[in-house]
């Protein structure tokens, strides 16, 4: 459930979560996940998010579903198009110059003949999305992920991911857009994501431990994004070394 709020409050949420986590104690548990030192606090936030989703977010997404699908898809594409310039910069910083060229081409064609991103002619031309964030760039450079965090409303993350949101949200063309657009921007993206997540609800509900299921899904997706679908063997090995047997809960 990421990118639902304005960027500045995320720093407040991140700081408060770290402060709460610092107050929590973790026993000398051989089954404890070293990536998740604030597990007690994270699980409390997870429970809060689940209740908030049932009461507010899921009903709101179901109302938004009444908007015709072509309109919803066009709005989402337009918002995604605004991210292309920053993806271009991060592709360059990662030395992925071919992907940077693809990203620049996507922004040009979708912003012109694609009517500011409402349409996606770039994909039809073979220019598939190459989205990159500053957090991914820092990870590629070798900066550690930091601890796993479950943030209120925003959901699962690691410090290097959410901790760079302020930078990710302050670049062209966002700097040219009024702050009045922030709330509808994050709302549309958040509700669109929530509708897509419905397909995973049954798998989540049937899991032995939904919290751990979501955490592992987040790490798999994060590593996939950082390493462009090809995480090195040592990253996969680190994940396999963590014991998530039922005795840890």
How would you portray this structure in words?
The protein has one domain. Helices cover 59% and strands 3% of the residues. The protein has 13 helices and 2 strands; from the N terminus they run αααααααββαααααα. The chain has helices at 7-23, 39-64, 69-81, 84-93, 97-111, 121-124, 134-140, 159-162, 165-168, 182-197, 201-206, 210-226, 233-241, and strands spanning 148-151, 155-158. Strands 1-2 form a two-stranded antiparallel sheet. It is globular and about 55 Å long. It starts with 6 loop residues before the first helix and ends in an 8-residue tail after the last helix.
What does the secondary structure layout of this molecule look like, with pairings?
Elements: H1 7-23, H2 39-64, H3 69-81, H4 84-93, H5 97-111, H6 121-124, H7 134-140, E1 148-151, E2 155-158, H8 159-162, H9 165-168, H10 182-197, H11 201-206, H12 210-226, H13 233-241
Keyword list:
249 residues, mainly alpha, 2 strands, globular, disordered N terminus, MlaA, ABC transporter, signal
């Amino acid at each position: 459930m990421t990118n639902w709020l304005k960027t500045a409050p995320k720093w407040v949420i991140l700081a408060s979560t770290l402060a709460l986590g610092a107050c929590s104690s973790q026993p000398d548990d051989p089954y404890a996940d070293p990536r998740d030192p604030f597990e007690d606090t994270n699980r409390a936030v997870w429970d809060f998010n689940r209740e908030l989703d049932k009461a507010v977010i899921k009903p709101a997404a179901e109302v938004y579903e009444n908007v015709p699908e072509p309109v919803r898809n066009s709005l989402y594409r337009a918002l995604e198009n605004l991210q292309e310039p920053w993806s271009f910069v991060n592709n360059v910083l990662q030395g992925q110059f071919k992907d940077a060229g693809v990203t620049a081409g996507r922004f040009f064609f979708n912003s012109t003949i694609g009517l500011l991103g409402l349409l996606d002619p770039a994909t039809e031309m073979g220019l598939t999305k190459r989205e990159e964030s500053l957090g991914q760039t820092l990870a590629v450079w070798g900066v550690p992920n930091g601890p796993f965090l479950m943030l209120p409303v925003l959901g699962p993350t690691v410090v290097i991911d959410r901790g760079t949101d302020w930078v990710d949200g302050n670049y062209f063309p966002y700097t040219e857009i009024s702050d009045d657009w922030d709330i509808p921007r994050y709302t549309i993206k958040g509700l669109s994501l929530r509708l897509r997540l419905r397909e995973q609800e049954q798998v989540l509900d049937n899991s032995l431990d939904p919290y751990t299921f979501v955490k592992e899904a987040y790490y798999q997706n994060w590593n996939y994004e950082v390493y462009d679908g090809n995480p090195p063997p040592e990253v996969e090995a680190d994940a396999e070394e963590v014991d998530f047997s039922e005795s840890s809960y």
